[in-house]
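testing teh design pipeline on a random one, pls ignore if ur not involved
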């Protein structure tokens, strides 16, 4: 269960609006902006939502400053979605968090749940979580999260060649994927497997 699970529907919408403004604009919205966006006429109505978010530990506010709303990050590494370790799939984002911080420093890291068996010879199996350092470059042969121009994401070894990029599986039954262009979203730094 995440902190956002304890919010009312309206509180969740207000929190997502505040989070979006802070992450994409660099600073939080004013009470008036929140009111305008949600058609809340009274500043006190907006303040009730902000106080609830503060009480539930999702934001902090500085007194007497109009844009002084700060996010309090949930503990753990963000779980950003599912990654294909097989055929290419459309990239799907999620916004949960997964707590591996006792093993990994969470600086610039995110987790992806693996779907498929194209990396099994590198000990990355279907259902595992890969821990990925958020970066845009990789050394030849590193395991990366690659995004193609079509927005498809895959987990493969990275081999730039003269006029193309080879995305190499670690499964001798599968062939490499060749693409003209691909962007690196991150480099795998660890694998977590639940053994029951």
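output:
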């Amino acid at each position: 269960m995440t902190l956002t699970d304890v919010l009312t529907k309206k509180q969740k919408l207000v929190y997502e609006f505040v989070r979006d403004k802070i992450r994409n604009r660099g600073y939080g919205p004013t009470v008036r902006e929140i009111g305008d966006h949600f058609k809340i006429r009274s500043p006190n109505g907006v303040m009730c939502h902000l106080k609830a978010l503060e009480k539930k530990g999702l934001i902090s506010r500085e007194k007497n400053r109009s844009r002084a709303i700060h996010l309090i990050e949930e503990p753990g590494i963000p779980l950003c979605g599912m990654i294909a370790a097989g055929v290419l799939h459309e990239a799907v984002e999620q916004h949960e968090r997964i707590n591996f911080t006792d093993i990994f420093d969470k600086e610039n890291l995110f987790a992806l749940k693996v779907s498929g068996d194209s990396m099994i010879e590198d000990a990355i199996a279907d259902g595992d979580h890969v821990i990925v350092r958020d970066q845009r470059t990789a050394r030849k042969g590193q395991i990366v999260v690659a995004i193609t121009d079509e927005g498809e994401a895959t987990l493969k070894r990275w081999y730039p060649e003269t006029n193309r990029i080879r995305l190499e599986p670690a499964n001798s039954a599968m062939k490499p994927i060749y693409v003209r262009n691909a962007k690196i979203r991150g480099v795998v730094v660890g694998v977590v497997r639940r053994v029951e």
